[in-house]
Write a structure and sequence with these properties.
The protein has about 350 residues and is of the alpha+beta class. It has three domains: about 100 residues, Pseudouridine synthase, CATH 3.30.2350; about 140 residues, 2-Layer Sandwich (Pseudouridine synthase), CATH 3.30.2350.10; about 80 residues, PUA domain (Archaeosine Trna-guanine Transglycosylase, Chain: A, domain 4, Roll), CATH 2.30.130.10. About 25% of the residues lie in helices and about 30% in strands. It contains ten helices and 18 strands. The longest helix is centred in the N-terminal third of the chain and has 12 residues. It starts with 11 loop residues before the first strand and ends with a helix. The N terminus is likely disordered.
Length: about 350
């Protein structure tokens, strides 16, 4: 078993194609069993009924989780109209039903589903979205789903979200049941199953999320992900957990933590400046030996590299004297490791 402080070779990102029926934490548990690494965290929780891309950080790479949580995401949402549920997905209890009449069906067909196309076309933009009761949002120290399971409804504050695009990929009307497939690109914190419920309300039929697949998460895509079953089959070919982790690393299945920051602006600093950041000191862009230009705007998270090593994440902020200073939000390497790199 891998014990003690994780080595660099035992750290990195692995992209998992989460199957339906297990929680995101369940994925973490299975990876711990496969690798022997205890320090594992995932970013962007997927509901048990959902499947698709789940980026997971192992070992020292878990320092990246807090920055990956802000990734934009892309989903494929399958909606079934005619039944609304308390969870907004197929696992919930039915709270309303609507059987499409022959007239409603004919209107949908003759208009080429115009009312649905218009509703989907109006999704892009900024919205205030209220988290569903069946969610992990905490109020007064308890998760909302804990209240919901006791039949309690708690007042929730709406949150700002952004939908960048929404494309109606397919629509069908079979045996009186209207179904649609929509690809949605959105900001963090967007509850996709709530969009299904909202569309059902808009059309007046009620609706729920029949399936949900995450296609992208930040710079990563589902095509890069591995099935848990495949990883478990690979593990059977190795005598112990450490040799299996070495296999993942040697085969490029364990991605370097730098991949998590692909879309972040970055700056390369000289060694002396990097050491100051590692020690918790701030830097001023105008100092001798530091880049004088190309610093990102104030407040924009920036990744710092030095000598090919990932050093820290931070941003430019106003100093007390009105000048600008770069302050770290998180140092990502130990001084000893940097000096030995």
């Amino acid at each position: 078993m891998v014990i003690g402080r994780p080595l660099a070779s035992e750290s990195g990102l692995i992209l998992i194609n989460k199957p339906r029926g297990i929680t995101s934490f369940g994925v973490v548990s299975r990876l711990r069993k496969l690798t022997g690494i205890r320090r594992i965290g995932h970013t962007g929780t997927l509901d048990p009924f959902a499947d698709g891309l789940l980026p997971v950080c192992l070992g020292r790479a878990t320092v990246a989780v807090q920055f990956m949580d802000g990734y934009d995401k892309t989903y494929r949402l399958e909606i079934e109209f005619g039944r609304a549920t308390d969870t907004h997905d197929l696992t919930g209890l039915t709270i309303s039903e609507h059987q499409l009449t022959q007239t409603e069906q004919q209107e949908l067909i003759h208009s080429d589903f115009a009312v649905l196309r218009d509703a989907v076309g109006n999704l892009p933009g900024e919205h205030l979205q209220t988290p569903p009761m069946y969610s992990a949002v905490k109020i007064d120290g308890r998760k909302l789903y804990e209240y919901a399971r006791k039949g309690q409804s708690i007042e929730r504050k709406a949150r700002q979200i952004k939908i960048y695009s929404a494309d109606l990929e397919d629509v069908s009307l079979t045996d009186g049941i209207l179904r649609a497939s929509i690809q949605i690109e959105c900001s963090k914190g967007t509850y996709i199953r709530t969009i299904a419920d909202d569309l059902g309300r808009h059309l007046g039929f009620g609706a729920h999320a029949r399936s949900l697949t995450r296609l992208r998460c930040g710079p990563f895509s589902l095509e890069q992900a591995f099935d848990l079953a495949d990883l478990e089959n690979r593990r059977n070919n190795f005598p112990d957990q450490m040799s299996f982790v070495s296999h993942l690393n040697n085969q490029g299945l364990l991605l370097p933590v730098e991949k998590a920051f692909t879309d972040f602006p970055d700056i390369t600093l000289p060694e002396t400046a990097a050491i100051r950041l590692i020690k918790g000191q701030s830097l001023r862009p105008g100092e001798t030996g530091l880049p004088q230009t190309d610093w990102p705007p104030v407040g924009v998270r920036t990744v710092i590299y030095s000598r090919g090593s990932l050093i820290a994440v931070g941003c430019l902020l106003p100093a007390a004297d009105g000048d600008l200073q770069f302050k770290t939000e998180r140092v990502l390497i130990d001084l000893a490791d940097f000096q030995q790199s």
